[in-house]
Amino acid sequence: MYRGKHVAPSNGGKIGKVIAWTLVSLLLLALVGGGIYYFVFMKQTETPSPLPVDPAPVDPQPVDPQPGPAELERKEKREALLKECEALSLGYFYDEAIEKLESCADLQNEETDALLEEIRGKKDALVPYESTQYYHIFFHSLIMDTAKAFDGDYDSKGYDLYMTTVDEFSAMLPLLYEGGFVLYDLKDMMEVVDGQVQKKTIYLPEGKKPLVISVDDVNYYDYMQGDGFAERLDVDENGNVVTIVDGNPTYDGDVVPLLDAFVKEHPDFSYRGAKGTLAITGYEGAFGYRITDLHLYDEETQKWMLDKTMEVSDALRATGWNIACHSYTHNQYWTERTITMNQIQYDIGRWKRDVVPYVGETNIFIAPFGVYYGPGDARFDFLLSEGFNIYCTVEASMNTRVLGNCFFQGRMNLDGWTMKDYPERIEKHFFDPMDVLDENRPGVVKPAEPIEPDVPAEPIEPAVPDEPIEPIEPAEPTEPTTEP
Ligand SMILES: [Zn+2]
Questions:
Q1: Which of 196, 266, 364, 455 is the most exposed place for a label (fewest CB within 10 A)?
Q2: Which pLDDT belongs to residue 167?
Q3: Least trusted range by pLDDT, from 292-296, 323-327, 447-451, 460-464
Q4: How far is the CA of 474 from the centre of ligand 1 (A)?
Q5: Do 230 and 255 meet the contact criterion of CB atoms below 8 Å apart?
Q6: pLDDT on residue 228
Q7: Cβ(209)–Cβ(129) under 8 Å?
């Protein structure tokens, strides 16, 4: 028997129907719910809604950050700071660069740290210059136009002897630079301690040599007019000293603008901005302005000349130049050694009265004709009492010593005379003058084929004489007025 089929057949049928309906209902619900879910949610993911979707939440950390204006400004400031400090460092202004970097904490980053480290290292690498050999070269105003200077008139021979051309000077600068020379301020080679003049320690990078450049008679004398020289110095709108040639400012008319431009290009050629020393007389004014002959000009011109002299002097000092006294008269009695006490008092008196008010005080005396007056000579005592405790002569040895509480320095003339007649003097310290000699000078014939460079001889340390040697005295091309 099949017992199950027979136990409550009617009741068992109703319960089965209820269960079946429940199952069907659940199935339907599941289908409908699944369908709704599919259409509402699943379809959306497949087909983008034409309606705008809520934007995705903004990421607080943008992937590609755009610096804000504040950060951009800091970046620009930092770049300017780095550039400025690199330039300062090239010119040996280490302390100034270090101070700037240290005082800009808000701009500090690994770049500024690296530069600070580098500059501290350079400062630590400066060493005292211990050689007794000093280097001082001098020029007169440069010849721009050789055809006019060497035109065969009575001045030509003097120009050939005592002058240097623009091309020669321009060729010398890179040779001096490559030779390890660094322009150094003459005033910074000495100091006064407890009233005593002494040599001051010179600090330079290992192997570098201090070089002083001076230029005599930066007066643009009347006799030079029309002979191929600049007319006068002036100042451009940026404070640069320029040469005036045919009434127009130029940057290649004499030592000053040429050296300024070279240092701009090679800042490490100048220790802390030093350039050179300009020696001027008084008897035909200063820098091309006839300020000691004012009575020859109308009132407007007088004022213009005085203003210009002061403007040029200020601009020179601001750009690393010293101004020195080259005596007022440059009279022959200086070199003939016949100058009396009255005459020397008159000479320096006029310098102080008629020139100093417009060019400023100076303690540098660049002797006319390079003549030497030393301790034991009342004329030297007078010069010293007038405040000249730096005294420059002309000596190819460039001997430098302190005597009688005065700092004496000999200078070598890099002019036609030395280049042609005493080339070994220049070659011993600087370069072969044949490499720079202007072919437009009378009698200069250069070899067509380059010659094999000589093997440089071992430099001989010059003996320092106990007594100063008598300087070689190149005469000036023309002799100045003979005032009392
Ligand atoms: Zn002179």
A1: 455
A2: 98
A3: 460-464
A4: 9
A5: no
A6: 97
A7: yes
